[in-house]
Predict the 3D structure of the following.
Amino acid sequence: MLNGLRFRWRELWQRGRLDREAQAELDLHLELAAAAKVAEGLDPAEARRQARIELGDPEEARDVLREARTGQWLDTLARDAALGLRLMKKRPAFTAVSLVSIALGVAGSTSLFAVADAVVRKPLPLPDPSALVRIYDSNVAKGVQGSGVATANLVDWRRRVHRLRGIGGHYTMGRTLTVGEESEVVLTAQVTEDFFPLLGLPAAVGRTFTAEETARSVFNVAAAPTGADPVLVLADGLWRRRFGADPGVIGRIVLLERRPFRVVGVMPPGFAIPDPDVQVFIPWGLEGDEPRDQHYVSAVARLAPGATLRQAEEELEQVARGLAEEHPRTNEGWTASLVPLQDDIVGDSGRTLFALLGAVALVLLVACANLGVLSLARGLERAHETSIRLALGATRGRLLRQYFTESLLVCAAGGVLGAFFAGLALAVLKRTSAPVPRLHEVAFEPRAVLFALMATSVAALVAGLPSAWRRAHSEAAPTLSAAPARVAGGRRRHALQDALVVAEVATTVVLLASATLLVRSYHRLQSVDPGFDPRGVVVAPIFLDMEAYGSGDKSRAYYRTLIDRLEALPGVVSAGGATALPASPLGPDFERPVWPEESPSDESVRRPVWVRMVTTHYFRTLGMRIVAGRDFNEGDAPGADRTVILGQSLARRLWPSGNAVAHRLMVDYSTSGIYPYQVVGIVNDVRFGGPRSDPRLEIYLPHAQRPYLVMNIAVRGTGDPRLLIAPVREVLHEIDPRKPAHAMQALDDLVGATYSRDRHVMAVLSAFAVVAVLLSLLGVHAILLHRVRERTREIGIRIAVGADDARLLWWIAAHGLKLTLAGVMLGGLLAAASSRAVSALLFGVGLTDPAAILAVAALPLVALVVSLHPAWRATRIDAAEVLRAG
Amino acid sequence: MAVEKLELLILKILALGAQHGYGIGQRIEQISGGALRVTLGSLYPALQRLEKSGLIDAEWKASDNNRRARYYRITAEGRRRLAADQKEWDRVAAAMARILKAT
């Protein structure tokens, strides 16, 4: 057995030597045979001649030996590849088209695969990430689902739920960081004691917070913690940007909202909980008298060893029920649920990414099928060569190998190029703000390389095998007898070509239908009335600090001055502010229970609604309409009656019979008590989260009566809102140089960002669909042109016997139409089968949207137009010449 | 079948002692009384197949007249195969003979 192996080894690695040995052996054999004959009395030359006759040709024996050896294919491959290269050079256009389509197909599918793989499959870069969960509160009776949790409840859960090993709360907001003389607004996260320990990732430099540091960091307002010697932890990005990655930063004092904080640690790069944009972490002590009905804290937890998500959730629900009994006023009906942290972060992006990956795979398939069609047509033109080689004794297997090698060469080159493009595309993508979670974790990994290899192999099979097989199996005799250009085509010879074109068209239909639906869906999104008019408005969040603006008067005065100064700017129509703006992610946004004053104050009528503090002119600036009553004015001052304006839906819900104005609304403002508010007006509903979101139940309180430190300002101008950014920035700097503007943006852009995924998906799919349509048309065109060339003789005869141009045109064009129609029908079925993947991405558009049907129905018509060119070529055939040549 | 028969003959000859290619051809011719003659195109591929399946082994050695030749030797596995194939061959040959006599 070992000997056998040794031979096999030599076969692979010592081919040259084996060959030489065989030669020596054969020579010796002949020599010995001749010597024997010389001994019998023949002269040497004659002896040699006779030995050769008796023993056969040594050259042939050597060839047989060589062919029989494994590893021989390497030599053959090299020869075939060389031939393939020559052929590629001979037809540069075809080679270029093939190369580019495969390179683009492989690049597109590989880069999308890399993204999908990183986002969906790769575990979070934290120790034992599968045990990490997010906690959401819900209250079925109040119609609340997936909201944040309340601080005091979190404290109790931590004590009572044993199947969760640590529960961490965090809350994100913008704060002004001052290092040296330079101030900037950075996104900060205040995190509770368990947050860092439960995530399990230690600081890269220094340390995270101690229990003692957390305990003394008490917040009274959502600004900065009180307590002595406050500390913070930096994120890697800020550390590099502002401190040049200096490890000596530990112990340095920086100002956060004008208060000195000591840096105790730096998190490692890639730490992206709760958000990759968070640059500063500060500790947050929850112990103490905290409200139970403010569900604004985000919570993460780690399952205790051995506990399943289901078990932990059951225990958590049980504890929540216990708390509801202890605190019925605040906790009635509230329960909590768990979601794996990774699922929570990825959300439904996985579905979108896989839909796109599927689409790009389809494009790749179309491109390959198209190459298959083109090379089939070409192969049939080279049928003459095949016939000769078959007649000369080449085996079909040998020919198949050679032809396949030809296309393999192009595919391999395309694959390498594609992988290179994919790497490039990923690098570019990571610099964009594409709406993909975990984008920073995307990398061109070995799995992506493997995928590129697979995609290339599939491409090679689809593009090369049909034509190679067809060519190797063309007939030897019939073609030999006729000149190459006049081969009469049999029906069977073209079945493969036709099938490829039909498949190509069918795939294109799927892409075209999906793309049309997405375009329609996108237009539908754009035409949704969000309840406000974002055009011409620029917005910016302002974060005032406790140190300088601690009292309500100071904050009120700041915003009063700011709004007045802004409205005095040339080109500004009006300015206003609100604690949270539609479509804007920054700013305090929370719910409070409310009920009509006249109804009994029992639990059933309490309803959590979103509360927003707004300045005068806010509604005017956002283009909202007061539908009843009045807007806030100077009269809604600190000492005056407390007033409130209701959103339309809430007004209708609370006072279904009539006008809510003049009624009084109770608002449980937990920390500062329950008071009645006079309803002075009703404003139209807004889609706060952008056009994809539903209107919420909202109330608005005058900022003058309920001053807030953090506000979003909105400025409406007469022209391009971006032109207002510089003057607004200047005004901000003049009022307080320590309060720089942060993330000033056109409201239009913010609204657009809420459906930027729709826009990206639509753009990508539309591009795919356009490419697929072009390729299919190219395929139809090629197949018809080939048909005309191949049937020159038949067409000549038809012309000679009196076929007119119209008949000829139709004869050729009808074939194209037949194929396209078959493809459209098949594609319709495929589209119906794959509709689930698309429908999840749609907004307000049905799968049987007329536009999509129209677009698909137009495809055969366009194909018909394209097929006029080959058909026209048919009419130009000179019958006389053809017949003479025949 | 023909090839397999040739391979069987080669094994049988090598079972009598190591031999180079020419020698094997000579032996087959001699023992068959000149009835069987092998060509280069059939002998060497058969040898290569046997070597590949580990039934024989080969080594370059100086020959009787001091020429370097490739000497083939039967391996233990080759002997086992020879015994089995020979038994099978005898059985088939006997059966053939009986059938041919009967008709």
Observations:
- Chain A touches chain B through 29 residues (CB under 8 Å).
